[in-house]
Amino acid sequence: MSLGPGDGRIQPSRTDRAEASVRRRRMYAIGAVLVIVVAGVAATRLGGGGGAAAASPSAPGSSPGASPPNQLLAFSVTGAPKALLAVVGTGGTSPAAGLVLPPGMTVTVPGQGETVTEDVQALPGDSMRIGVSNAVGTWADHYAVMDLHGFGEAIDAAGGLMVNLAAAYPVGGTVLGPGKTHMTGSEVVTFLYEKADDTDLRWASVLEAFLEAAPAISPDELSDADDAAAATEILQSGRGADVQVAPTTVVGGTAIVPKQPDLEQLVGHLFGTPAPVKALVENGTGSPSVGEAVAKDLIPAGFRIVLSQNAPSFDHATTTITANGTDHVDDANAARKALGVGVVQVTQVPSGLADVTIVVGRDFEG
Known about the structure:
Layout: H1 14-46, E1 71-78, E2 85-90, E3 97-101, E4 106-109, E5 113-116, H2 117-121, H3 125-136, E6 142-147, H4 148-157, E7 161-165, E8 169-171, E9 174-176, E10 179-183, H5 185-193, H6 199-213, E11 224-225, H7 228-235, E12 242-245, E13 248-251, E14 255-258, H8 262-271, E15 277-283, H9 290-298, E16 303-310, E17 320-324, H10 329-339, E18 343-347, E19 356-360
Parallel strand pairs: 1-6, 3-12, 15-16, 15-19, 17-18
Antiparallel strand pairs: 1-2, 2-3, 4-5, 6-11, 7-10, 8-9, 13-14, 17-19
Helix pairs in contact: 1-8, 4-5
């Protein structure tokens, strides 16, 4: 992506940027409609609908002709006052891509409820990975955490970064940008540490340059990771990555939330993944670990948990999985397969929120 003008170009006005954003959203919407039409024709020829288990790259929300990357990484750089979170995808025949989760964005974290991205970043690594995966609606195969100063040291070891800056920024007593600008590790640290309104754009521009530089990161430079070798390989395989910022909207005058279906369409465009099945999960056992355990099974199976809450009572012996309409019976069966327990039932009363409602019982062992 281009976050600012190239060398010698005039900085676009706010109006021009807004119009460009509208054009991009229209393009995603048109693409999504065409994909849905093609998927509908295919389903008719096959004589049946597809659920989460049958999803393919041609499902709604995916990029036509794209194949999913081999690996997705939930990447966190800690130590700044605002969240520096992203998903990075590399491998396969798809180009590398990145998606920044903006600071202050409220997302649903299974087992935690509604949580802003700063608090998602503060969670233990595996829980952070679950929160990020659920936010974007696709599973991150791995996670990695770096300290901001260690991030700067890795940048210096690579000889600095060429960052495409959206504007002119005062950094460390000098003015950098606009356009492609060489930045040292200490300059990047100062740039990202500032509590700025455009931290999401700053982080996206730096991450794109960082992936382009493909710095040689040793596994011990990560402060946390589920598989340090796999994480560093992903970060070093991101040359040419298209890094975007997750679209958001403001509700209630204050809360910043993901803008849907724009985010699902963008994730499909970047990573070639299908739109997730929406699930409402209720804890019917009272165990505090149920939400996260269910998410570990559901999200990799193609689900996004849109609401995670307690059931009215904690005396549920058997997990119930309710398809909200006959169109979602396959999705309910896919959820049962992912969880390994439960009985499937159907209601014709739409929830208005999710495709599948799950009340977790004591038969679920996690």
